[in-house]
Amino acid sequence: MLGLDGLRGLAALYVVLFHCWLYTFPGYPDSAAPAWLDVLMFGRIAVVFFLVLSGFSLAISPARHGWRSGGIAEFLRRRAWRILPPYWAALAISLVVSLYVVPASHYGPPDGSSLLVYGLVLQDMFFAPTPNGAFWSIGVEAELYLLFPLILLVRRRFGAAAVAACVTLPVIALGLLATDANPVEGDNWLAPHLAPVFVAGVLGAGIVVASERVRRLPWGWFAAAAAVPVLALGVVQGNVWTVHHYFWVDLAIAPSMAMLLAAVATGRPAPLVRLLITRPLQALGNFSYSLYLIHLPVVLVVVRRVAPHFVAPGMPTFCFTLAVGLPVSVLGAWLFAELFEMPFKRNRSWKSLSGVLGRSRPGTQSRPSTTVPEEQNQPPVPEATPSRGKSPSAPVT
Predict the structure, then answer these.
(1) Poorest-confidence range of 24-28, 115-119, 330-334?
(2) Vertex 373, ends 368 and 375: CA angle to 5°?
(3) CA-to-CA distance for 62 and 280, rounded, in angstroms?
(4) Maximum distance among all Cα pairs of the chain, rounded to whole angstroms
(5) Residue 91: strand, helix, or coil
(6) Among candidates 71, 75, 194, 62, which has minimal Cα distance to 141?
(7) pLDDT for the residue numbered 70
(8) Contact between 35 and 298 (Cβ < 8 Å)
(9) What is the C-alpha separation between 19 and 300, in angstroms, rounded?
(10) How far apart are CA 321 and CA 21, in angstroms?
(11) pLDDT of residue 391
């Protein structure tokens, strides 16, 4: 949908910048970085945005068809087709880098359990040494995909308020019952906490298919108004407090994000939409899933293996990583996407894909393409800051 790819691209780029910052300056969240770089420390918010965007994008088509998914099995098949091939390719690359170049986890190198858990996308349910700190959110997304048909069912039969209540109230109750009313996250089991932000996106999709009167409401201004209290609280309490209270910050910021997506999807504010549909942002958004999957090994190699040979720690390493790691990540992600993501994005079955591959062989007669373009509502899964139960050296992204 118009503008959403641009938002994906910007969010993915921020995640890369966050990891350049995180691995350069020790001590997260109270890091040794200059204060003016603190704006880069909120990678967790980027993951929340991606989850809201995921729910929003996936729900557009069902919202237009009475909140029906078109079949649970078909929905899950298409999600697996879209998400798993590039994920498995990135997993293979990450395993090689983590085993032979630079460790990805303070828990030690990946082992057999890592291959099993991450290969089956069970990392949010079972712990194993990670080959890539960014992969935690892929497990969360997989669980939310399983929940998605049930969300649609409740939305269709009982309405938006019932969906929000069923998913959000138990999470709020869990938070209030925790010590100091502030749960400490561990290495997994994050999907229940993050389900409400996904649902916020699903409910936001209803705005796009609502009446003209509803669509014309100033959703961009509503989004800004909803974000102001959260941002103000973060400014007053400070960055460290904000990071230590992501459980509540995630829930508080999600409605603003959903309304922003609704505003952009309905073409407002026009200056922002014009920026988001520029060719560079559209292109970046098109392969942002690949950028999310492979950027972290690149950043780690640059920070821990390359930079020490050329520059001093701290700010020199950060600048070096921006100059080298950022463009290598983007260019590498583009190439990776062309090989492992775009073929599955453009073709929806093995038959379609094999037909394209067959026509590309030398001496094969060319025929008109019969592939079906992938829907524009297929979001990437990108990355967050370390949750408080995780070591800064092994961020959840």
Answers:
(1) 24-28
(2) 170
(3) 30
(4) 70
(5) helix
(6) 194
(7) 85
(8) no
(9) 9
(10) 9
(11) 38
Residue 92 burial class via C-beta count within 10 angstroms: exposed 0-12, middle 13-18, buried 19 and up? middle
Taking only the tens place, the pLDDT of each residue in 200-218 is 999 999 999 999 999 999 9
Conformation bin of residue 68: beta by default, left when phi > 0, alpha when psi is -120 to 50? beta
183-197, 281-295, 381-395: range with lowest mean pLDDT: 381-395
- Token duo for residue 171: 């999470």
The mean pLDDT value of the chain amounts to 90
Rounded to 5°, angle at Cα 119 from 55 and 44: 40
The answer to whether residues 164 and 203 touch, using CB atoms and an 8 Å cutoff, is: yes
Single out the residue of 303, 172, 200 nearest to residue 260, CA to CA.
200
Cα atoms in the Cβ-side hemisphere of radius 13 Å centred on 251: 21
Q: How many CA atoms lie within 13 A of 61 on its CB side?
A: 14
Query: Which helix (H) or strand (E) is 316 found in, with range?
Result: helix 315-336
Report the C-alpha gap between 211 and 172 in whole angstroms: 32
**DSSP reduced 3-state for 187:** coil
CB-based contact 10:291 (threshold 8 Å): no
Contact 397, 48 (CB under 8 A): no
Dihedral sign for Cα atoms in the order 165, 171, 176, 181: negative
Over residues 42-47, mean pLDDT: 96
Any residues with CB less than 8 A from the CB of 36 and at least 6 apart, and which?
none
pTM for the model: 0.90
- Tokens 């200056």 appear where? 271
